[in-house]
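Aim 2 progress update. The chain analyzed this quarter is reproduced below.
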Amino acid sequence: MRLLVVEDDKDLNRQLGAALEQAGYAVDRAFDGEEGHFLGDTEPYDAVVLDIGLPKKDGVSVLEQWRKAGRTMPVLILTARDRWSDKVQGFDAGADDYVAKPFHMEELLARLRALLRRAAGHATSEIVCGPVRLDTKAGRVVVDGTAVKLTSHEYRLLAYLMHHSGRVISRGEIVEHLYDQDFDRDSNTVEVFVGRLRKKLGVDVIQTVRGLGYMAAPPEAGGR
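Predicted structure tokens:
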């Protein structure tokens, strides 16, 4: 999952980025409204954390422009605690949720997990695909009751496929949603990570759809 953080407070931006990366997300960061608007308008983010009070262009204007342009990614806005009007403006502009400053990082992470789940059509923090269970809250993967240790990139790939289980995901889409903009992207690495995942999981939940990409599906739905 790839996220965008738009926050002009450099310390808070850094803290948010570090917490999100530690939670297993690829993170891009912007420090003003113009930069944030450009990235959100040109890159395929799974969700955005957007501050309302930004220099150059305020967060509400940024969000309104995204929505008018047809950008549908979930957006979590950051507001000042005493500015209820910011929350109303944010929701009217197309926000999906909000967190008031100052906030607990765990709350923000939980709200983001919920937004990502709902966007993909999942109601709970646990996503199941055959014998594989992905606990998005704990960042834990279990196969037939046994925990499987994955690297951050392996976990990110599996999480993206399982969030969109039943849908064929192209290599290009995987690359766009697994790595931040500064990463040296190479679609060939996807094959490597898929191979590692299949070996570690020990079950055929990741299917190859020739010429199209990959799909997470229960083993009984077919072979690789």
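The two ends are 24 Å apart (CA to CA). The mean pLDDT is 89. These observations will guide the mutagenesis experiments scheduled for the next reporting period.
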